[in-house]
Amino acid sequence: MATDMVHVHNMFLRALNSIILQSPHVVKPGDIADLLAYTKTVVITIDAHHFGEEEYLFPALAAYTKNQDIMSANQAQHAAFHAGLSRLGEYCKSTSPDEYSHTTFKGLIDAFAPSLYEHLRDEIPTILALKVYPSDELRRMWVQAEKHIADVGSYDEMLPLAFGCMDRGFEGGRHKFPPAPWWVAWVVRYWFARRHQSVWRFNPCDMWGVPRPLTFLPIDI
């Protein structure tokens, strides 16, 4: 479960890094609209992940371990950045390209990013500490929590984001993540990604998990 959590957290970090690096160079109205849509999707996906944790994974772990506080520190960290993350999401939903301000946009990210990073870093040791419990049972709880991501977002937004932020070369390509059949990437690329195709220009990888040059980053940087 800890390895899967690392992959998910890395996905969030790659997406946010892609936004931070590219957003200063996005100036055309159509590109700004896609940037806002991409960022909104990142917010939705992070929310979906934490919704699954708080509603399903954390309570299941507390019940299984008979320790009601086992994930309390992680839940408190969620609260530390949730309001700032929500403000960014609202800005992306309510702002037109003409109203967009990169200064405002970056300020919204800067307001919660350190707390989010701290959480993404600190949660992994907490999960690793669960190794004293049977891995099959932990895996069952993880899978159950991840099933509920569609309660928060839609597959035609979250799946293209996820597959476009998964670096299959991470740690020498030793991991198979996401643990899905090979053809799923094709379905994501040619079905789910079609509706918002231009938005996925902001992904740091292609849908096969291969890193690529950032579209809006000047080549001389």
Q: Topology of this structure?
A:
Blueprint: H1 2-22, H2 29-65, H3 72-94, H4 102-128, H5 135-146, H6 155-163, H7 183-192
Question: Main attributes?
Answer:
single chain, 221 residues, mainly alpha, 7 helices, 63% helix
Describe the overall structure.
The protein has a domain at 1-154. 63% of the residues lie in helices and 0% in strands. It is built from seven helices and no strands. The longest helix is centred in the first third of the chain and has 37 residues, at 29-65. The N and C termini lie far apart (37 Å). The model has no long low-confidence stretch (mean pLDDT 91). It comes from Metarhizium robertsii (strain ARSEF 23 / ATCC MYA-3075) (Metarhizium anisopliae (strain ARSEF 23)). InterPro entries: Dimeric_xanthone_biosynth, Hemerythrin-like.
What's a concise summary of this model?
With 221 residues, this protein is mainly alpha-helical. It has 7 helices and no strands.
Strand content: under 5%
Element-level helix/strand string: HHHHHHH
The biggest beta sheet reads:
none
pLDDT < 50 stretches: none
| N→C terminal distance | 37 Å
* Rounded Rg: 18 Å
What is the residue-mean pLDDT, rounded to a whole number? 91
Form type: globular
Discrete helix count = 7
Give the structural class: mainly alpha
- What percent of the residues sit in helical stretches (DSSP H or I)? 55-70%
Secondary structure tally: strands:
0
Pfam family, one: Hemerythrin
Domain Hemerythrin-like: 4-123
Protein name: Hemerythrin HHE cation binding domain-containing protein
InterPro entries: Dimeric_xanthone_biosynth, Hemerythrin-like
